[in-house]
Specification:
Chain lengths: 194, 250
């Protein structure tokens, strides 16, 4: 699982990914293969967290990776890092899929393929990936329960803030501010800069 | 939506939790509000960290599949026809009205800091107590369980129903949206289907057309669930044809 590991070291690996993406923009297939190796793990993880269904997740993850190839010339490093760009795209595509009517129907017909998210602890993984997850978990624990639940439902379950409000029996305004407060708290804890 | 409201949408936007209409309104706002643009960039980067934390190993053959696919896909030009929809709106360099900018800076300055954090904690503690009555914490626990699985179905009149089950918690949540109000004096009742025999799982709130309900009792060996219209107070056994019957996610 070397490919998964690379992304865990994103602080040092990031400049390379930026450079790789620049080469992908020029049609370099080998550079794309390296980008694939670096990001496929998190891309699949994000999509699977939202969609749950194994087959659909793989389909959407592939679409996202092909979109990285197709739209690499549009990537602007002054608007954020390559990892952010790719994972934002992955989350958006997963959410689009989960909210589409076709997907609801497909899920009903493919119940047999619904299966649980793998127990992460069962998956062999690199130290870097585990450290990343532990750091995020530790920071999530600094949020209030409401902030954490709201962020969790919106990001990992792909709910709109209106759906989050229904699920948590909270007013819409409260959910909006808690999503923002929660992410700000998380940003500060993780030391994220843009 | 007022400008003051728009400033608070940075988090929901970064999490892709807005409707299309709200997203478009917020992107127009980004073009004229520098603090929101900066905050949105930071919160999007923070959301990406949530993504990095859930890395999964792919099926090995997927690599070959994707590398084969890209050979048939033409790349876009840098200024190509389809700029990303986010960037397109944000970069449109609209003239910024001085009033908008002032309002924007004031809003940004009013937030953050330890005092706000203390206030949030106190406010959330109160909110928690209020929510406890409605089982909101239990609902959240089921929805966010690592083993939560869901199934969605169409109900009459364009409504949708989703059942979410967590084996580890042995509980289920039913989420309905866009349901019509039940006839006067009637309520919607939820049922677990234990191999053909129906076990009551509680009532829905007749006043709300969209809601999430913690189904009463353990899931146990139930293979499905259903919704019926019953007289106020509910029934021991269903007395009407179910509006919906669905298998629980396997
Ligand atoms: Zn603003």
């Amino acid at each position: 699982m070397n490919e998964v590991a690379q992304i865990g070291r994103h602080h040092s690996a990031e400049p390379d990914l930026q450079e790789l993406l620049r080469r992908v923009a020029l049609g370099d297939e080998q550079a794309f293969a390296s980008v694939y190796d670096a990001v496929v793990g998190p891309v699949l993880g994000v999509v699977r967290a939202v969609l749950r269904d194994r087959a659909q997740s793989e389909e959407v993850a592939q679409e996202v990776l092909v979109e990285v190839w197709r739209t690499a010339p549009r990537f602007r490093s002054d608007r954020g890092t390559a990892v952010n760009w790719i994972l934002t795209m992955a989350h958006q595509r997963a959410v689009d899929r989960v909210r589409s009517v076709e997907a609801a129907a497909a899920r009903d017909h493919k119940a047999a393929q619904l299966d649980r998210t793998p127990e992460y602890d069962d998956v062999t993984e690199q130290v870097e990936a585990r450290l990343e997850r532990e750091q995020v978990r530790r920071c999530l624990r600094t949020l209030t329960d409401i902030q954490r639940q709201a962020v969790d439902l919106a990001y990992y379950r792909g709910l709109t803030y209106r759906e989050v409000a229904e699920a948590l029996a909270l007013p819409l305004g409260t959910v909006k501010t808690r999503l923002r407060d929660g992410l700000i708290r998380l940003r500060d804890c993780l030391g994220v800069t843009a | 939506m007022s400008t003051a409201d728009l400033h608070t949408l940075t988090g929901a936007y970064a999490l892709h939790a807005l409707s299309d209409e709200e997203r478009q309104a917020f992107e127009r706002h980004l073009g004229e509000c520098e603090p929101c643009t900066q905050e949105t960039a930071e919160l999007s980067a923070t959301a990406a960290r949530l993504g990095l934390a859930v890395s999964l190993p792919p099926r090995p053959a997927m690599r070959e599949d994707v590398l084969r696919q890209i050979r048939t896909v033409r790349q876009e030009g840098p200024g190509g026809p389809a700029l990303p929809r986010r960037a397109r709106t944000a970069s449109r360099g609209r003239p910024v009205s001085r009033w908008a900018l002032a309002a924007c800076l004031a809003a940004a300055a009013a937030l953050g800091g330890t005092a706000v954090w203390q206030h949030e904690r106190a406010e959330d503690a109160l909110e928690q107590a209020r929510r406890a009555d409605r089982g909101a914490n239990d609902i959240a626990a089921v929805l966010t369980a690592p083993d939560a699985r869901s199934r969605t179905t169409k109900l009459a009149g364009g409504a949708t129903g989703t059942v979410v089950v967590s084996d580890s918690r042995d509980r289920a949540v039913f989420m309905a949206s866009g349901m019509t109000e039940p006839p006067r004096g009637k309520v919607y009742q939820l049922w677990f289907d234990d191999d053909g025999s129906m076990r009551s799982a509680g009532l829905m709130d007749p006043a709300r057309t969209s809601q999430a309900v913690l189904m009463r009792g353990a899931v146990g060996g139930a293979s499905g669930m259903g919704v019926t219209v019953e007289p106020k107070g509910g029934s021991e056994q269903p007395t009407s044809t179910p509006l919906a019957l669905l298998n629980l996610p396997a």
